[in-house]
Amino acid sequence: MNEWLSKLGAVGWGVWGHSLSTAPYLFFLASASSVLYFSIHRYEQGRFWPHLKASNWSTIGFGRGQGYTMNVPWNQVGMRDADYIAAFLYLLLPVALEFQPQLVLVAAGFDALQGDPKGEMAATPAGFAQLTHLLMGLAGGKLILSLEGGYNLRSLAEGVSASLHTLLGDPCPTLESPGAPCPSAQASLSCALEALEPFWEVLVRSAETLEEDFLEEENVEKEAEGPWQPPALPIPTWPVLQARTGLVYDQRMMGHYNLWDKYANRVRGEVSPTMTSTGQDSTTTRQRRSRHNPHSPPHDSSVTSKRGVKKGALLHSSPSLAELKKKGRMKKLSQAAEQDLVVGLKELDVNLEAKTLSGTGLVFDEQLNEFHCLWDDSFPEGPERLHAIKEQLIQEGLLDRCVSFQARFAEKEELMLVHSLEYIDLMETTQYMNEGELRILADTYDSVYLHPNSYTCACLASGSVLRLVDAVLGNEIRNGMAIIRPPGHHAQHSLMDGYCMFNHVAVAARYAQKKHAIQRVLIVDWDVHHGHGTQFTFDQDPSLLFAFNSMSWTPLHVSASKKDTPVFMPQRVFRIMRRLEELGLAGRCLTLPARPATDAELLTCHSAEYVGRLRATAKMKTRELHREGSSFDSIYICPDTFACAQLATGAACRLVEAVLAGEVLNGTAVVRPPGHHAERDAACGFCFFNSVAVAARHAQAVSGHALRILIVDWDVHHGNGTQHIFEQDSSVLYISLHRYDHGTFFPMGDEGASSQIGRATGTGFTVNVAWNGPRVGDADYLAAWHRLVLPIAYEFNPELVLVSAGFDAARGDPLGGCQVSPEGYAHLTHLLMGLANGRIILILEGGYNLTSISESMAACTRSLLGDPPPLLTLSRPPLSGALASITETIQVHRRYWRSLRAMKVEDKEGPSSSKSIPKKLTQPANRGSAVGMTAPDGNILDADAGKATSASSMEVATPDQAKSETAVVELSQDQTSEAPTGEATADQTPSEAATGGATLDQTIVESATVGATPGQTTSEEAVGGAAVIQTPPALCTDNQTPPASPAQGATAQIAPSKLTENLRTLDLNSEAQEAPESQMAEEEGLLGEAARGQDREDSVLIQSFGDHAHADQVMFYAVTPLPWCPHLVAVRPIPESGLDVTQPCQDCGTLQENWLCLSCYQVHCGRYVSAHMLQHHEVSGHPLVLSYVDLSTWCYNCEAYVHHQALLDVKNIAHQNKFGENMPHSH
């Protein structure tokens, strides 16, 4: 492998999904997985251009490149923002974080926007801003968008503008009622997850068996009847801010300390209350790190033995937080151990302000408008597209905010990284052709026009993207956008396609690998059309599947003889502020003065009696304070406690005012004491006033209405106080991720269990993710974010986000025992910033390791300031116990949040009552899977041949069909008599019933392509005896088994005789006409041969297509051939005389349907002529025969079609003799 070959990531989000049809074998020389390709596109079961089966979810790459192609096909129009976001959260982001790209390239088509005449989707510019924001968390923010399609000038311009705003760091606009993904999107996404799960650790679900889901059909919110009508296209707006991030801190909050902790007293004496946070000598602080409390008792090992107490045990025997502290549970790290932690934290790139890149590059060249269609002025791909974009960018002042780069021409050597020299030379000659010659050449391609300037502009477009690659990887800019034409993602190795001449994104990926030694690139294609050119460029990129390091990070442990740590020390906030100032982060924030909370503000969450009780502590003597503190759980009180708690709460309220007033976009409140344990009338767990709860109520009071507020609590302890305050309020969504340990972790009891979901009108608005053990880390929290937190949050659509930002789940914390890194916290923050128009406030809660809490808060502050999250290396996949906790919470909340129904859960009964299809064996798509499609007029859609011919009449299924065409499924005996055709049954979901009446009880089968004619292009699959049929509508339900992974060695070996026993006539249109008997006789012959004489009435599979039902009927048979069989040793060398496919049967002389014995090379007729080949097999025992009709190979002993390397020579010679040319892609 060339050293420069590395890993790239690509994303596509356009409507035109897979359209790269001739380059599936371009990059087979790579020896390590280097490019991850993701495409989300309109498919409609193959009815939408480019009409390729390779655009379906079942295509996941080939050879060692399996798993590195991800397709999310939309099978209906009108898909909305929620559908696209769900695909990113559930699939793209988790896989991308495991893949760890170093560069992200986006084939940014905007034809999925509402109003586009080609895409017919309903995404909004704000939705694409969200997608861009999510991608900015990858690859250290190294992200380049390359313009592809988009043909509604207004929506195109606004979509480009919205994405560019996001690249520049502006907040994402609020989505207009995003809701949850629709059932069709959920089906597509679920099937894609099943296909890819064997290849990516992060997609693995919990293996634990959960209690039966009590979700009943009548409790599920029904989808609205009739077609969905999209609302008017919203116009995104961006606020004008005084500063981006606000910061609230007041050193007076250090006045609260433990009177009975001599260490705390000493610290308080060393840090003068009048000293500013900028005047601290760092040497003094470093010296303090090694000081221990000499009075701490030895560790009591009996405390640990109580960790495994199961739910329902006597919880009163569990220690309180204060008792744990007294018994030495909270250990201070030794100086050496803490130094090790500091060394580990240095991997986080937050130390040098100079390393923070700024600026968004933009390439926009008027020369790109110097070509158009000479013979059709109405052609949608025209110069007016770029004119509309330019006007929009000027109107919004975005051009001046970007770093402008001069476009350059791509060199031939650069284009040859993807395209053949012959093809490039041919394109170069178009500069000298006249209009007639250009039109003749363009007509040889699909959806292409040529102009004398087409070649020049295409070279300039590719060069523009390469210029941005140099700038981003050369650290000139952070990210960039290339506003170019013509588009590129359909272009293939030696083929123009779909307006595209050169594949800009593919060239850029290979260029980044060669010149900049980039190892991993993610390509995202969100154009509404599938980027089949890009997919085929990389789908055979041989890969060694990315594996997690088996060495997981282990938290530092200290022996019991070490001294106790001062758990709740005043210097926590001081150290955080000092670190923010060292990194220059505090200077980048707008510092806001803290103020005490008013009684009116406190009384929104606390009782007057409780407030008065705390106020009275300011005048108490030491003994009275001790007695008062002991009346609460894990509380100490000093004379300044009330003032500090009042100031901490008021600081949070001040920050809320600044955010809602538009002074700042977001903010951080570095405050103490914490608040999330505080109840309405009781202090608890170091907390007195519930700062985040009071801030939420204050936000609603300031806004004048019940503002929708999301509270995310990532403190390692459950926020029992916050939960209780809002448990009956549907305007506040509370999500907590915390250690629970079956009720034995503070605050103990079942309040933090996943079963706690709120009460009354607040039911479903309390969400608890309860970790039942230590060592939970980045992979686990991100899995919760992708699978649970963000789907619910986007559906809730908050107007403000508050974070109870405790950092005691950070690695090295003496209380939490977890392993979240500063980098991990940065990513969690970044992902939340896409919500609520960017209005997010972090309010400090717990965290008791001074180094990790300072670095973690600094990382979060960087994200709030708009810096890209640092690269995050996941040392392991999510823990099985963590996945079980996430799954348990999903199970509980699926009935309340439709967005959670997109994720499959291992339960006994899925969210739908429809029956699943019992499957004996399944097999994912591979090179032996069915790909070709024979239409009535003789045209073939063949992904491997690379050219989609005559798709005008091609209709291949119903909109909501989602199950793989490549799976071989056998119906059980009792199903064969069920489900009449032509009408919906009770087992159908609403989306299925709308598709024409096929039921879930119908089978999915594949068999051999019949009767390939000399005029047709025969692919490997056609030669191997496999062709596409369209499956009946069958949603991928929770109870269906995922496709078996080739890595798992699963092979479907279902004999056609058994397969056809359960087949029945399937008419998907009640008005369908019967196919001509002549057609049936010939086509049934092959299936009869495979079935060894099965009655033809049992083997007929009829499918009609919509409006063509009366005129043209299509009959298809398909089967997935075996990739190997034990009888291949019977194949003998080809005779020197060669083969003659016109040779008659040696017994009866017929020329119809003859077969060739691959052991003795005798020719005999098939079953439905005189069955002489069957007789020959029975006499000679020779197992393998080759069909002279379609060149498929049948094994009598295995009763299955077979396609293997050992058969390619004889197939190729037969192909040459039959068609006069070599078999395409014969490898």
UniProtKB/TrEMBL annotation:
<dbReference type="GO" id="GO:0004407">
    <property type="term" value="F:histone deacetylase activity"/>
</dbReference>
<keyword id="KW-0966">Cell projection</keyword>
<keyword id="KW-0963">Cytoplasm</keyword>
<dbReference type="GO" id="GO:0051130">
    <property type="term" value="P:positive regulation of cellular component organization"/>
</dbReference>
<comment type="pathway">
    <text>Protein modification; protein ubiquitination.</text>
</comment>
<feature type="domain" description="UBP-type">
    <location>
        <begin position="1123"/>
        <end position="1221"/>
    </location>
</feature>
<dbReference type="GO" id="GO:0043204">
    <property type="term" value="C:perikaryon"/>
</dbReference>
<keyword id="KW-0832">Ubl conjugation</keyword>
<keyword id="KW-0479">Metal-binding</keyword>
<keyword id="KW-0009">Actin-binding</keyword>
<keyword id="KW-0862">Zinc</keyword>
<keyword id="KW-1133">Transmembrane helix</keyword>
<keyword id="KW-0206">Cytoskeleton</keyword>
<dbReference type="GO" id="GO:0016787">
    <property type="term" value="F:hydrolase activity"/>
</dbReference>
<dbReference type="InterPro" id="IPR023801">
    <property type="entry name" value="His_deacetylse_dom"/>
</dbReference>
<dbReference type="GO" id="GO:0000118">
    <property type="term" value="C:histone deacetylase complex"/>
</dbReference>
<keyword id="KW-0156">Chromatin regulator</keyword>
<feature type="region of interest" description="Disordered">
    <location>
        <begin position="270"/>
        <end position="321"/>
    </location>
</feature>
<keyword id="KW-0812">Transmembrane</keyword>
<dbReference type="GO" id="GO:0006950">
    <property type="term" value="P:response to stress"/>
</dbReference>
<feature type="compositionally biased region" description="Low complexity">
    <location>
        <begin position="274"/>
        <end position="285"/>
    </location>
</feature>
<dbReference type="InterPro" id="IPR001607">
    <property type="entry name" value="Znf_UBP"/>
</dbReference>
<dbReference type="GO" id="GO:0016740">
    <property type="term" value="F:transferase activity"/>
</dbReference>
<keyword id="KW-0863">Zinc-finger</keyword>
<dbReference type="GO" id="GO:0030424">
    <property type="term" value="C:axon"/>
</dbReference>
<dbReference type="GO" id="GO:0032886">
    <property type="term" value="P:regulation of microtubule-based process"/>
</dbReference>
<keyword id="KW-0539">Nucleus</keyword>
<dbReference type="GO" id="GO:0005813">
    <property type="term" value="C:centrosome"/>
</dbReference>
<dbReference type="GO" id="GO:0008270">
    <property type="term" value="F:zinc ion binding"/>
</dbReference>
<dbReference type="GO" id="GO:0030425">
    <property type="term" value="C:dendrite"/>
</dbReference>
<dbReference type="InterPro" id="IPR023696">
    <property type="entry name" value="Ureohydrolase_dom_sf"/>
</dbReference>
<dbReference type="Pfam" id="PF00850">
    <property type="entry name" value="Hist_deacetyl"/>
</dbReference>
<protein>
    <recommendedName>
        <fullName>Protein deacetylase HDAC6</fullName>
    </recommendedName>
</protein>
<keyword id="KW-0472">Membrane</keyword>
<comment type="similarity">
    <text>Belongs to the histone deacetylase family. HD type 2 subfamily.</text>
</comment>
<feature type="region of interest" description="Disordered">
    <location>
        <begin position="905"/>
        <end position="998"/>
    </location>
</feature>
<keyword id="KW-0805">Transcription regulation</keyword>
<dbReference type="Pfam" id="PF02148">
    <property type="entry name" value="zf-UBP"/>
</dbReference>
<dbReference type="GO" id="GO:0051129">
    <property type="term" value="P:negative regulation of cellular component organization"/>
</dbReference>
<feature type="transmembrane region" description="Helical">
    <location>
        <begin position="88"/>
        <end position="110"/>
    </location>
</feature>
<keyword id="KW-0678">Repressor</keyword>
<keyword id="KW-0378">Hydrolase</keyword>
